[in-house]
Amino acid sequence: MFRLFSLFTLVFTLTLPTLATASDLIRLTNRDDLLGWEAVGRIDLGQDSYCTGTLIADNLVLTAAHCVFDNRGAPILPERIVFRAGLRDGAAIAARNISRYVVADGYRASDGMSADNVRRDVALLELSTPIPTATASPFALHMNPTRGDNVSVVSYGRKRDDALSWERQCDVLRRGEGLISFNCNVTFGSSGAPVFSDGGYRARIVSLVVGGHKTEHGTTVAYGMELPDTVDDLKRKLRASAASAPSTANTGFRKVDVTRGGNASGARFEKIQ
Question: Where are its TM segments located (predicted)?
Answer without folding.
Answer: none
